Amino acid sequence: MRKLDIRTSNGMAVSEKGEKTVKKILEAARDVLIEHGYEGFTMRKISARTNLSLGNLNYYFENKELLISKLLDAVVSGYENVFDHIIEDETLTTSDKLSGIIRVLVLDLGTKETTRFFPELWAMANHSPNVQKQLNLLYERARRYFYDLIGQINPRIDDERRATLALFFSASIEGHTVFIGNRKTMAGKREEIAELAASCFLKLAETDHQ
Fold first, then answer.
1. pLDDT tens by residue, 77-121
2. CA separation for the pair 47, 52 (Å, rounded)
3. Do 39 and 126 contact (CB within 8 A), yes or no?
4. What b/e string do you get for 125-138 counting C-beta neighbours within 10 Å, with b at 16 or more?
């Protein structure tokens, strides 16, 4: 999992000390979700982990849903930093950029944090429409990179088809979590799968014309 990136305070913390506190809370929330799962994801556990009182924690985040929303924003922003670095590399072709992002995402499945964090979010989304909504927004932001690069590689593809291919790429990568994630049965295949995914998805982007 990429380093959390807090891009805005959204009015919750304007001072430097406040921003540091928000960061500490979000990191604690991430760790509690990873270690205790969605059923154990409570404000009380996060409070204990940060050594903040519940009242102080609620000053920054009135409820768990607001905390999750901010956490997801920080998570996806962390990935966007990595993607933007690839996109802005002028030594890379557009095809190289698409392949690079695909490899980053597949190899990232090997971290303990990624293997546990996202499946717990999926489970939480099954019981919370708000979490499902926030999760959808997170993936939409991530898929935008695929969408844009596909269009640059193959201008013949219309907008709807580009969106479908971007969804296919994202879903295919996420689905590998249960097989090649951290300490999973086929984890040893992760590097090979990363190369295979990059090659297959790039070829599909280049040749698809539906």
1. 999 999 999 999 999 999 999 999 999 999 999 999 999 999 999
2. 5
3. no
4. beebeebeebbeeb
Rg of the chain (C-alpha set): 18
Residues 6+ apart with CB under 8 A from 15: none
pLDDT of residue 210: 67
∠ CA 137-198-107, nearest 5°, is 70
pTM of the model: 0.91
- Residues 139-160: what's their mean pLDDT? 96
How do the domains of the chain map onto residue ranges? 64-207
CA atoms within 13 A on the CB side of 59: 11
The third-level CATH classification (topology) of the domain covering 64-207 is Tetracycline Repressor; domain 2 (1.10.357)
